[in-house]
Amino acid sequence: MPAYRPGTERGPDMERVLLVVGLVLVCVLCGYGLLVGWRHRAARQSALPELPAAPDDLGPDLAPPLTGVYVSTTTAGNWQDRVVARGLGRRAAGAARLSVEGVCVEREGESDIYLPIADLVQVTTAPGIAGKVMGQAEGVLIVRWKLGETLLDSGFRADDTELQADWIVAANELIAARPKGRSTDSPSTNGAPS
């Protein structure tokens, strides 16, 4: 029979410590994997042009600004293909403003996203976009627009759905009324969010 040596046995407390350490390591590895994936996606999307700068004066609002949360931007019609380049992937609380100059999403703690009237294609709703699924048709406001030659969908979760409905009507009237020479509509908008 071997001699007893204190400290050579592993009790339940030691097993818990090892399990906790193992779980922490798994969480750290998952976080690292997410960070690397985010950076690789940004590198793949680096060919996207810079975002347009907002004018000093957007002019009067055509509809009451919507408060809520900017959710994300995806490639048009691909609600899970998130765009992270140019700061478009960062979710933030804020407000969506509509003026004759276009749409400006003012984000708290992040840079604003300005979409000139010439680049707007369509404003509608969808049940979700990357980062937020509501399960209702009007759950997320979707603004379809062009950045260079790339068609994108930006999602905004408004606090007030009644104001959102009025905002959408005003936005689509603005798009329809703009001079024809400024239109950047693609020939086909198949895959538009519904």
Can you summarize this structure?
The chain is α+β, with helices and mostly antiparallel strands. It contains two helices and nine strands; from the N terminus they run αβββββββββα. The strands form two sheets. It has a seven-stranded antiparallel β-sheet with strand order 4-3-2-1-9-8-5, covered by helices on one side.
For the structure shown, list the relevant keywords.
alpha+beta; 7-stranded antiparallel beta sheet; 194 residues; single chain; 26% helix; PH-domain like; disordered C terminus; two-stranded antiparallel sheet; 2 domains
Outline the structure in words.
With 194 residues, the protein is α+β, with helices and mostly antiparallel strands. The chain has two domains: 10-44; 66-182, PH-domain like (Roll), CATH 2.30.29. The protein is built from two helices and nine strands. The chain has helices spanning 12-44, 161-177; strands spanning 66-75, 92-99, 102-107, 113-116, 120-126, 128-129, 132-133, 140-147, 150-158. The strands form two sheets. Strands 4-3-2-1-9-8-5 form a seven-stranded antiparallel beta sheet, with helices on one face. A two-stranded antiparallel sheet has the order 6-7. β3 and β4 form a beta hairpin.
